[in-house]
DNA sequence: GCGACAG
DNA sequence: ATCTTGTCGC
């Protein structure tokens, strides 16, 4: 598939932050989804010496969740990991995997934050803008905001708002009973409510929803080099 | 100013 | 994220 080249990737941390501020104003938090027939999951694995990375994208049917396409792409990492600037480290490689994709997904689930980010531009938002496809941020740990731990019961499906500066930036969602929750937020072209619905619909047997769980597994595939 | 900090 | 074996619990 093809996408919009919004900017260069070899930028300084200061330039990256400036870009995030500009891009954040372009994020759409309303639902603009077409009939969702295909959902993709994306994740990335890093090499032993953190010199290279391998991005994996898995496309599954919805709501049956059957895999219809898988693509991986390896590349050198340009930037180190800096909290808040994750997309500048991982997206170049992830976009390489999307270039190889034949089946265009209607919705994408990303391993990382959406707008639940210091400048409201997590990796899911950034990817959504480059692809112009709805994206959901599915983080395994918190980056920004706070929530009432007591408002989250042990049962699957339980959730409580993630709040920052007086506004709801995401939902802390329990995808499995008695298992650590996930931090869900809108990426681009989708509402928070709809995001949570899709995550729960794809969280069948594990903590991670099937799209990102399978992408995570594929990126770590031991039968490949790196 | 101090501490926290997705993957 | 990654380094790593067995082990507790449903």
TrEMBL record:
It is found in: Cytoplasm. It catalyses: Endonucleolytic cleavage at apurinic or apyrimidinic sites to products with a 5'-phosphate. InterPro entries: Endonuclease-V (IPR007581). It is an enzyme of class 3 (hydrolase). GO terms for cellular component: cytoplasm. The keyword Cytoplasm applies. Its main location: cytoplasm. PANTHER family: ENDONUCLEASE V. This is Endonuclease V. The lineage of its organism: Bacteria, Candidatus Babelota, Vermiphilus.
